[in-house]
Fold this sequence. Notes:
By secondary structure, the chain is α/β, with parallel strands linked by helices. It has 24 helices and ten strands.
Amino acid sequence: MAKTEDVAIFERNVAKALGDGQLRRNLRSAMATMSQRRRTLFADTEAFEQLRTLGQSIRRRALSQLPELLEQLEQRCTANGIQVHWAETAAEANAIVLDILRRHGATRVIKGKSMVSEEMHLNHFLEEQGIEALETDLGEYIIQLDGETPSHIIVPAIHKNKDQIAHLFHERIPDAPYTEVVEELNAIARGELREKFRTGDVGVSGVNFAVAETGTLCLVENEGNGRMCTTAPPVHIALMGLEKVVEKLQDVPPLLRLLTGSATGQPITTYFNMITSPRRSGELDGPHEVHLVILDNGRSGIYADPERRTTLQCIRCGACLNHCPIYTRLGGHAYGHVYPGPIGSILTPQLKGLDEAGVMATASTFCGACEEVCPVKIPFTEILRMLRNEAYARDESEHEVQGHGYRYTTVEALSWKSWALYNTSPALARIGAQMLSKFGQHLPMIGPLKEWTRVRTPPPFAPKTLHELAQQRGLDDDR
C-alpha cells in the first residue's frame, strides 16, 4: 500500500462515520450502557486496582516464559488427546484448517466467536473452497447476514439497533416475520441456528485462555453457541494467538473476573467452557477429535521487543474501545482493520506493518482513558508514541517495527531541522518573534495551516514579544 493511501482511506472512513447520524446514536446508547455496567461492578476502586495489578502480573509472568509455556501446553494437550498445529502466518493457519476439513469431507462449518478467525479471514477463505462457514454468535450472525465484519471485538453488531436488525432478519431470513421485539428476534435466530448445530460437520471456536499446566482450553460466552460448536459436531478446531497461554489453572479466575467485568459488567458470563480432551470412552457427547491451531502471524516479532511485548498482555475485553473518545464516535469499521479502537491502534500496525496500518496509531487523543480502564494495565500511550516515532524514523531502530520510516520525507526532516535551529538560536528566535508579532495575523492559510485551521480558530499573535515586554518593565534579558 502506498504510504499515503492508508491515510486517505482512513480519512474517508472517518468522514463517512461522522456523517452517519444513526451510527452515532447507536454507539452513544450502547457505549453508555456498557461503561455504566463496568463502573457499577468495579465500584470499589481500591479492590479493582488490586485486581488489575494481579491481572497484569499474571499476564507478564506468562509472557516472560512464553516459549516454555507454549511447549508445555503442546505437551499437555497432546497427552490429553488434543492435536496441536503451529501456524506462522494466517495463510498457513487457513491451510491447516482446510486440510482438517477435507480429511473429514466437511462441507459446513459452524463457528463460535473468534477474532483470530477474523484475522485469518477464514470465512472468506472457506467460501472460496466451497465450504459454508456459519457464524453462530448472535452478533456475528447478524453482521454475516448483512455482509459486514465485526465493529467491536466483544459486541460485533454494536453499531446496529433493534430496528435495523428487525429489517435485516425480515429481508434475509426466509419466512421471518417483521418484529422489533428483542425476544422474538432472538427466537428467530435460534430457530435458524438449531438445525445448523445438529448438521454441522466441524465446529470452530476461539480460545480465551489456554492453560499450560493442564492443557485446558477455556472459552467464555453468554449464549451457549460456543458450547454447541465445541460439542455437537464430531470435530472441533480451536484457534488461538500464541499469547493466550497462561501458566496455571489458578491464574484463570482473576483474569476471567477482569475479562467479564471489563467487557460487559458481568461478574461472570453465562457459560465458561473448559475443554481438555476429545470425547472419551463412555462419554455421551463431545467431539471425537479436537485440534488446536496456534497462530503467530507477527506476534513473535512483538514478543522479541520488551517494550512492544506489553501489547500481548491484552485479554480482548474491549474496555478500551468502550471508553475511547475516538472509537465511541466512529465505531469499528472506520479503522478499516480487524482490530479497532485503542488495542487495534497498537496491535495492528505491529502485525501488519506501519506502512500498511500505521495510520491507526494516529487515531488517539492521548487522553489515557484506555490505560485507565485496561484490566491488565497495557501502557497504550507509550506504545502509540513509539509507533508514531517509528513511522518517521529514517535510520534503523531498536524496535524493528515492520515498515518503520514509511512517512519520512526530506521536506519534513528539513522542516524539523529548521525548527531546531530556530529554537536554539536566540538571534533567529528574536527576529522570528518580532516578525510574527507584526505580520502573524496576515499569514495566508494555505497548505498545512489551512488544514489545521479548518476545524480550529487560528491563535492570535501577541502584538509585542516577551523580550519587548521585559524591556518595557526595565528587566534585562539575562534575568
